[in-house]
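Fold this: Carbohydrate kinase family protein
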Amino acid sequence: MKKGIAVAGSLVADIVYTVDRYPEIGALTKIQDPIINNTGGAVCNTAMVLAKLDSQLPITALGKVGKDEAAERIWEAFRHYPNIDVSQIGAEGSTSFTLVIVDSASKQRSFFAYWGANEVFCEDDIDWDKFDAKIFHIGYILSLNALDEPDNQYGTKMARLLAHAKEHGLETSVDVVSEMSDRFQKIVPPSLKYTDYCIINEIEAQCTTGISLRENGELQRQNMKKALEKMNEMGVAKWAVIHCPECGFGLDCRTGEYVEVPSLKLPKGFIKNTTGAGDAYCAGVLYGAHEDRSLEDSMKLATASAAFSLSDNGAADGLKPEAEVIKFYQEMC
């Protein structure tokens, strides 16, 4: 039986500034201490959360970094996780980085990204025969330029990669980056045809399906099941999951089971940073799928994993082993 999770795609060095209040254009705001240098992106965040949940789980990281100081921060972070195989991370150009601005009042984040080495990561960088895993997860669609390019047969290079992953006996999973653009309905759907697990937030789901999920800040709960069913119609084969601050919504595409798992009511002062919480949620769902848990149990683990991620500056810094995460969920739900 196949075992392990491969996580491919975005590798990022994060620089996090917390400000009193996000400023209007042309206005001034104060940067608070501390200034945080951290790792980010789907590969770092998701792989490290998985490693915290289960230190015995085989994890393979795939992507590209540069040959610079930022890359050294990423390599150093991975050294703390002996169950993450980094042999398929290549080095080319400059490491991708993201400037993250956190509004201290709302805890909302804004991202200014330099794509760097992530732009050139492609299927040629993957040797399918050099790793064995049950699930292949990649993120983020819309931020990996070489894979977002058109493909005459599959629609996009990302869709081609996912099709080849399935041909190699892997279950496939995708995540999408949140951006303000009209590219979603052109670039995301081709990949969903070759996707087993799609785990995205409500804004990404809205832009992908064209179904309104948040209007004027208000969550449109009545449309969630419809959006999940649309994702299934677009090709998602096993689980379609939408997460948002208020709740997680899931559809088992094989049985039609619809699941809602509310977010936890966390104590005042518990939330330190929201950067990486979506990846932590994704990791929880993936771990549940890997362990053949139900969709509902996997979403509960994901909800608690995201909560632990909120408790510290890095996506994985606050995480605990799975048993402790589940215990926390049971105490807080």
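The chain has a mean pLDDT of 94. The chain has one domain: 41-96+116-332.
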